[in-house]
Amino acid sequence: MRTTVPLPGSHGYRTVPTGVATLLVSALSVAAAYGQPSKPGAALPVLTEISQIRQLAPDQAARGYPVRLRAVVTYYSPIGGNFMAQNPYMGTDTPDVFVQDSTAGIWMNVPKDAPPLQAGQLLDLEGVTEVPDFAPQIGKPRYRVIGHAALPQPQRPSLEKMLSTAEDSQWVETEGIVRQVGLFRGMLTLDVAVAGGRLRALVPDIHGPVPSQFVDAEIRIRGACGAIFNHKLQLVGIVLYVPSLKQIEVLKPPHDPFTQEVQPIETVARFAPQRTLGHRIRVQGIVTLQDGATIYLSDGRSGLRIESAEPAAFKRGDRLDVAGFPQVSDYTITVEDAVCRRIGSQAPMTPIPVTVEQILGGDYDSLPVSMEGSLLGGSVLADKQTLVLKKGRAVFRAVIRQAAGVMPGANRRAAPPAGSVLRVSGICVADQDENGHNQGFRVLLQSANDVVIVRQPPWWTVPKALGALGILALAILGGLAWIVVLQRQATLEQRYQSLVEYANDIIFTLDLKQTLTSLNRAGERILGYTGKEAGGLPLARLLPPVWREKIGEAVQRVSIGEPYPNREWELAAKDGRRTPVEVSLQAIRQRGRPVGWLGIARDISERKRAEDEMLHAKEAAEAANRAKSEFLANMSHELRTPLNAVIGYSEMLQEIAEERGAEDMLQDLRRIQTAGKHLLGLINDVLDLSKIEAGKVQLSTERFAAAPVIHDVAGTLAPLVDKNANRLEVECAENLGYMVADQTRTRQVLFNLLSNACKFTEHGLIRLEAQQVRGESAHWVEFRVADTGIGMSREQIDRLYRPFMQADASTTKNYGGTGLGLAISRRLCQMMGGSLSVESQLGRGSVFTVRLPGDLAAIEGMVERPGGSLPREEDAALVDALAS
User: Fold this and answer.
1) 3.40.1110.10, 3.30.450.20, 3.40.367.20, 3.40.1400.10: CATH of 502-602
2) Which of 82, 202, 575, 742 could form a disulfide with 90 if both were Cys (CB 3.0 to 4.6 A apart)?
3) Which residues have a Cβ under 8 Å from the Cβ of 640 and sit 6 or more positions away?
4) Segment (H or E) for 787
5) Domain 46-252 belongs to what topology?
């Protein structure tokens, strides 16, 4: 019976025997379980479920596993996920497509010119795995629509689980209250407050006005769970990709917020069990200050911070009707995403004169206050001016949001000097700790007109006089120190300039356009350009075409602060000659921003030349070794033929001498025969090792019973066991089972181990055990050959498997042998898919363990191969030779 299966490394299907097909399928299954191909150079297994793709590590997904599956489209939008500049790895022209099968969901990298899709379409698709950014995805998809299917049954994970990335690309469902609604390039955006936080939902292909009826509505929404991540591939938010408005179910429609009962500001944060959690509230009050979208409102007794959802400008004294969502932030109540309406106007509220103790008592937060303090200093920025004041032992800040303008007072053309007593009027903002206690405060001022100079400091004071003397002394010392610094700086600059100019490495600088701005003498010598010619020369002119794309990638990585390890480039000289160099790059920054790049290029021509010579020498040595091994392997016939003739003639002469009664010649003829057989065994070992090294040993893999082979080998070695008065014990169950190996080579390995045990043991015990061992994915037959002989030390074990090496020099002298038996045995075990190991103690004996395949699953990709085998008669002959 034959089966058609896809074979690794082929371009189609091939018909093979059913047993081999089972072996190949088993090997591919094992490879798929570990994310590795079954053999080096073999084709990767095909993934047929999305969950298999999601389980790949990034380095595994990047290998491009083939994908073949059937899935339903859960979301499609021709506008990519970067339409709001939230994905640093995706362009706006890349469509967004999520698909899901019965196991999981995933994002599919569809080309921008592909035909549009619709949610609910059933696809038969193929592709490869890739991981260009946040998670594994399907790349290079080829698909066809084969029908329609119902969308998957949604999961209902918590926001915490979605933030763990466990639900990325999955079809999910959640409930919440809509906080904001927007429309951008036909994409509807919803800001939804859910249990544990907030998320954003996107609905594509929306035409017409913004459907504002969703604001403050309780909804149930279904979509593909997506991630917002930064350039470091760190999750920073959740996006729900909703295919259409049909997936948004309004559980509770919103009410007109301006029809609700107005709540007093002072009761907003109080106990109110009748208030609906998470919905908008309505308050009214007088504007006391506006800072962009932040508005401070007061009813005369309490203050409240409002974050407006719409751009609007109000004046102090305007009376507003506000509807928004209450939110606790910074240990205070803020009304967010608020809609504000002007319902009247009155005179601005008069600031309340307060003391530091009253403010720290906590009763004036967000209220207009007025207080005095001594000016310690200040700072002016583009959007604000800060004054640092002191009142008693307390220090606080007065922040003027409109920094332009001059301070009022006796001299309007200059800011008040330090030491002036100022009265500031503005909104008190308390700084609280985690227990809600006021640790400090600041006063927000609408403009510089809210600062009044109460008292100017005296023009000349003792501290000023002392300060003037100190300044004079410091100026003198500073001048002297500056002279020393300039001298040292000039010396250092000259030294560094010399180091750069006379360095052996090429040192160059680039501007932001990747144009050379400087080049040292080593660069001029190697590249053939003068410093004047190099100035303004594009770096691309110095690079072969294959490197010009890589320089852009290198500069981009260095610009964002990532390390750029030493890389090998090639620089083209003025005369066209190419020089291999090792380049390192780093950004030149000013005030934290890159203004250029510094590069150091080391000429590695000599190193490359040495590496090439070393490679040629290595190849020559390997070729010589292969020639030696092939020579020895080819000498099999030439060495064995005359030796077999010697052994054959000695047997014939022995028979003739027995017939003629020449007893005096029989002993010499037997010695000739024994020595010839011994020499034949040694030559066989040398030729076996040579064939292995030359790659000419072929295994004949078959399925055979293990027990008969064990008893046969044990019976053959009986004369060698009796030679040193040893005792051989064999422990082997008759139902030991079957092996999958080369039967002749298995006998050879066991014969070598048992003959060594007999050789190095006198008047002792030799034990041969065999048992079945079950591994994670295969069966094995394990042989243990134990003896009570001379044993080995750790140093002797380390030399044991080297060809022509024995435990020490005395071993060859006392016991004979070539030192090839264990080396051949170990390599034969490895070629059959098994192993050979040893445990030994000096003077206490040794234990050799052989593990060989016990069924088809134990060998990956093994097929039957024809090959020669050692005749069993040679084993008996070698036993006779060793015994004599």
Assistant:
1) 3.30.450.20
2) 82
3) 680, 683
4) strand 779-787
5) OB fold (Dihydrolipoamide Acetyltransferase, E2P) (2.40.50)
Across 162-180, average pLDDT? 90
Beta bridge partners of 332: 329
Alpha helical stretches, state H, 323-461: 356-360
- Same CATH topology for 257-345 and 352-455: the answer is yes
Calpha distance 216→9 (Å, rounded)? 60
C-alpha 194/C-alpha 216 separation (Å) is 12
- Distance (Å, whole) CA 848 – CA 750: 10
| Beta strands in 446-553, from DSSP E residues, in sequence order | 451-455, 506-510, 516-519
Distance, in Å, from the CA atom of 222 to the CA atom of 845, rounded to the nearest integer, reads 72
pLDDT (0 to 100) of residue 547: 67
Render pLDDT for 717-755 as a digit per residue (tens, 0 to 9): 888 888 888 999 999 877 788 888 998 889 889 988 998
- 352-455: in CATH 2.40.50.140: yes
Determine the Cα–Cα distance for residues 730 and 727; give it in Å rounded to an integer.
10
Tokens describing residue 68: 């073949």
- What's the rounded Cα separation, in Å, for the pair 136 and 54? 6
Mean local confidence (pLDDT), 155-165: 88
Cα Rg of the chain (Å, integer): 44
Architecture of the domain made up of 699-883: 2-Layer Sandwich (3.30)
Give the Cα separation of 323 and 308 in Å (integer): 10
The strand pairing partners of 178, in sequence order, are 192
